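Table 4 source record.
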Amino acid sequence: MIPIEKFHIQNSNGALQAIIPGGEDIKLTFDNRKVFSAYSLKFRMKESEEQIAAILEGISYIVPAPLFRFMTGEALESWVCGKPEIDLNLLTKIVRYRDMDKTHYLVVWFWRIVSRFTNEDRVALMRFVSGRSRLPNDIADVSQRFQIMKTDKSKDGLPTSQTCFFQLRLPDYSSEVIMEERLRYAIHNCRSIDADNYMLARNVENNTQGSFEDGII
C-alpha cells in the first residue's frame, strides 16, 4: 500500500503540490514508482532555492559569497552560530563577579556544579542567563561579560537572571546540594523569557502588583 495516489507530495507549507506539470492527474503505480521517486527528490532539493538565494544575497553583503566554497557546512555553522558544546574554559574567562569574588563559597560551588553539568545542562544555563544557546568560538567575539552576583533574596530560593545583561543572580544557599537542585530546576523549568508579554498582560488584567525578572518570576 502506498499512501500517495498521484504525482504530488506535501510541500514545506503542508499543502499538496504536483512534482511535475499535471502531476495531480497522473496516477502513481508500482511501475512508475522510480520516476515518482526521482521527481520527488528533485522537487525537495529545489523547493527552497528562492529562499536560499535570498539568504545568500543577504550574507554576501557581509562576506563575499565565493568564500563559502572553501568551507564545509559544519565550519560555516560553527563560524556563524558558535560551537554546539558550551566551552566551560571560555565561560570562566569572560566572567565578572559582583558583590563577591572567585573565592566566595557560592562562586566555588557554582563552578563545581557547572563542571558536573552535561552539555545539555550548560545549554539550558546559557538560555537562562543570556537567551542564547551557544557561545562564540573566539573570546574576541564575546560582546558582553558573564556576570554572577549575590542577591539578598530568601535563603535557598531559586536563582534569577537578567538575560539583557548576561547576568545570574544567586541568593544565599545552605549547601552545594541545595544550590545545585535550585539551579537545575530554574534552568530547565523557567520559560518566562518566552512569555513576558503574556505575563505582563495577565498582570495588568489581574491588577497585580510587583515585578518579575527575565529569568524567573
